[in-house]
Fold this protein.
Amino acid sequence: MEITIPGALVDFLDGTSLAAGENDSDPASKATRECLEAGRRGRGRTLIIKPTSTDMLNVISEYAETLLDVDDATRAERDAARLWLKRAGQSRAALAEQSLATAPAVEEQPAPAPTNVVRVALRYLRRPGSGTMTPTAYVHINCACGLAKSLVGTFDNLAAAEEAAAAMPGGRRAVRRCAQSQPIHKQAPTVEQAATAPRDEPSDWWTIMDPASGTEIVRVYGATAEDMTRRAEALPEVRAVIRKHRGFSRRRLWVSELTPAQRQQQAPAAEQAVEADLDARLDRVEQQAATAFDATARAVDAIEHAENVEAAVETVEDAEALYAAQLVTEAEATDGTWRGDWIGEHPNDEPLFPIDRPREQGSLFA
Ligand SMILES: [Zn+2]
C-alpha cells in the first residue's frame, strides 16, 4: 500500500531526530526512518512511502501532531499535518487487515486485557533548522504502538500516567496524547453483578466486590444505593480498591445471604421504617393544623380589613373576597403593573398621541 506524505510534513520530518537516526534504538522509529528513506518523491515535495505496519503510520502521526502543536508552525505545515493524520487514519484499517492476512499466526496479539494499559513515552524532537531538541512526553492509552526504548513507564490508569508524563523534562506543557489512543476501559464501578443467590427478600445489606476478581471485600449496610456508597467509600479497604480499579462492584444481598448478625440489624431497620411512617403521619397532621391556623388568621385579617375600609360585608366569605381583591391590587402595584386609574381616565377608542391623518404610515420616522 502506498501513502503520500504532504510536502511540508516531509520537510519537517527531514529535520527531526527520527530522520537523523537518533531514535533508531526504538524499532518502530528505525523502521519508519528506513521506510521514509525508501520512499520516492511524488509531485512537488511530497514523498510516497510504502509502510508495512501501522507502527510506521503511528510514528509519523506523532510528528504530525507535534507539528500541529508547534507555536510557530506555518499554515502550510499545519495543513500538511492535518492531511497526513486524515490519510493515516484511512490507511490504518486497510494496513491492519493486510498485515493480519500476511502475518504468521504466531504473531497474533493476545486478547486485550480488561485492565487499562497506559504507557508514557519520551521523545526528543528537533525543529527543522534549529539545534534545539524538544522533549515531548506521549501518553499512549490502550494502544499497540511499539515504544521500545522511548517507554518511560506503564500505568493502569490515566491519572498516574499523566502525572508521570508531566514530570518529564518538558513539563506539563510538553505532554501529548498518542493519536492511536483507545478509550479508557470503564472498570464498571456501578454495574451490579448478576445475583446468584435464590430470590427471596432483598435486604439492606450490600456486598462490595473487587471489580477484577469479583471477590467480596466487605459488606456494607445501606437502605439506598446512596447510603451504601457513602458508607462504602469511607472504608479504607474499599478506598484501596477504588484507587486500584477506579471503582468497585456492588450488589444488594438477599435476606437469605445474610449472616444471623446482619439479619438482626435488618430487623431493627424494619422497625425504623415503621417509625419513619409514624413521623410522616405526624408531619401531615401538623401541616393540616398549620393550614387551618393560616385560614383562621386570614379570616381575622379579612374582617379587620373590612372594618378598616368601613365596607359593608355580611359574611366572613365576603370579607375574605374583599381582602383578596385588596391583596391583588397591592401586589400589582408593588410589581409596577398597577395601572387601573390610568386606564380608567382614557376612553378605549381615543388615540394616545395625535397623528395627522393625510400622512402615510411610517411618516413618523421620515
Ligand atoms: Zn500509542
